[in-house]
């Protein structure tokens, strides 16, 4: 997912809420666990549910845009055929053709705006899904921290070396699967902007 960095940031903030460890505490046998955030999002039931729902929303958006796109492609081919062999002066002198070109240009511009709006809606929907995923993950992560008596949770991606025993990813996934196998993902809509 393209917004995975937001996910990492949210995890870091959740873990930061657990507290800071002083160097003296670390010297006294601090328990450290690691988690693989990307794997949690990719392999958990909730993460897979989000991915499937986002894909469905993306397909829905493409289905909505497809008729206009096809119509514009057909109209563009027709206009290109009309323009074949004509000079700029000939085109400018043909009022009907100029009107047709202007109308096509307006439709293409409107379609580009619609496509951009749909893309923004999908991005907004994805961000909200990740926020909801993080809300579901936080209590599970805190539960694992408590069970493992961990004082530090590190991202596996930033650890140079770590034994498998400190990796709590599978435990987090199994607890998240039990607690929250699905996440509600609803397409976010951006209101129409009034014409200027």
Automatic annotation (TrEMBL):
Residues 1-27 form the signal peptide. Pfam families: OmpH. One of its GO terms (molecular function) is unfolded protein binding. Transmembrane segments: none annotated. It comes from the Bacteria. Belongs to the Skp family. This is OmpH family outer membrane protein. It comes from Hyphomonas atlantica.
């Amino acid at each position: 997912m393209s917004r995975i960095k937001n996910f990492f940031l949210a995890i870091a903030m959740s873990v930061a809420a657990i507290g800071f460890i002083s160097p003296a505490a670390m010297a006294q046998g601090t328990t450290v666990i690691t988690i693989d955030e990307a794997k949690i999002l990719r392999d958990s039931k909730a993460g897979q549910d989000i991915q499937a729902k986002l894909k469905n929303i993306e397909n829905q958006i493409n289905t909505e845009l497809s008729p206009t796109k096809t119509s514009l492609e057909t109209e563009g081919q027709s206009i290109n055929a009309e323009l074949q062999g004509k000079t700029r002066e000939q085109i400018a002198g043909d009022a009907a053709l100029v009107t047709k070109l202007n109308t096509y240009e307006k439709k293409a511009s409107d379609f580009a705006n619609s496509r951009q709006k749909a893309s923004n809606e999908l991005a907004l929907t994805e961000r909200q899904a990740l926020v909801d995923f993080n809300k579901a993950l936080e209590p599970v992560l805190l539960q694992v921290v408590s069970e493992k008596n961990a004082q530090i949770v590190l991202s596996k991606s930033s650890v140079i070396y770590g034994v498998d025993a400190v990796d709590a990813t599978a435990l987090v996934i199994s607890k998240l699967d039990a607690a929250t196998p699905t996440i509600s993902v609803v397409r976010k809509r951006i209101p129409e902007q009034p014409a200027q």
